[in-house]
Request: fold
Amino acid sequence: MRLRASALPVLLTWPALWGVPLGHGLEPPIQSREIDSMSIAITFDACPTSSKAIGFDRAVFDTLTREQVPATIFVSGRWVDQHPEAMAELASSPLIEFGDHSYDHPHMRALPPAQMELQVDRTEATLARYGRRGVAFRPPYGEWSQGVLEVLQRKQIPVVLWDVVSGDPSDKISAKGIVRNVMARTRPGSIIVFHINGRGWRTADALPTVIAQLRERGEDRVFGAQGSGVDDDES
Ligand SMILES: [Zn+2]
Reply:
């Protein structure tokens, strides 16, 4: 597996969808990448799970490790604080890169800039304890605004969304349904979003089939959301 994403232009997919006028020099969120190979990005959100003591879907991580598939996990700082053992394992895996998913999952657009900044900084501080940093920021609920972009741009952290929803937070969707969703929507350069905080009900059941089917289609080169993954040392 290798990636070439770092040198690629960002494909500006549907920036008009939100109708947010972007200030001069602001980059819209990344939803997918223009890419000249079959690479795709597999990403997971680890949203805070206040209702559960344990919100780590270990079977998902086991599959990634067994299949040697790199992935980006967008962690909320509170999730990091609540899952020290899982974090130690994830942070020691060369397959895993981290994204920043705010500290406690607020509606970022509603916050004053200083609070937005605090959400990012607190999460970065939790990651730093594991010798890691967020290579990208994914706002909770995919909600962004010019203010959110400005804060992240000042910190030089790209804002990364997705173009393929797996649908895994719904307890109504079967593993087959997740596979169908992902396979129907994924194309080269896609960024797929799953959950690894136990909120994905059938993610672990679906993931091995998703990986196998992506590989069958030739989409077995997986890049990190930032394009700075672990497998960029080849050629
Ligand atoms: Zn989330």
Remarks:
- The chain has seven helices and eight strands.
- The beta strands are 10-11, 32-33, 41-46, 71-75, 96-100, 134-137, 164-165, 191-195.
- The domain at 5-216 is CATH 3.20.20.370 (TIM Barrel).
- Confidence is low (pLDDT under 50) at residues 1-20, 225-235.
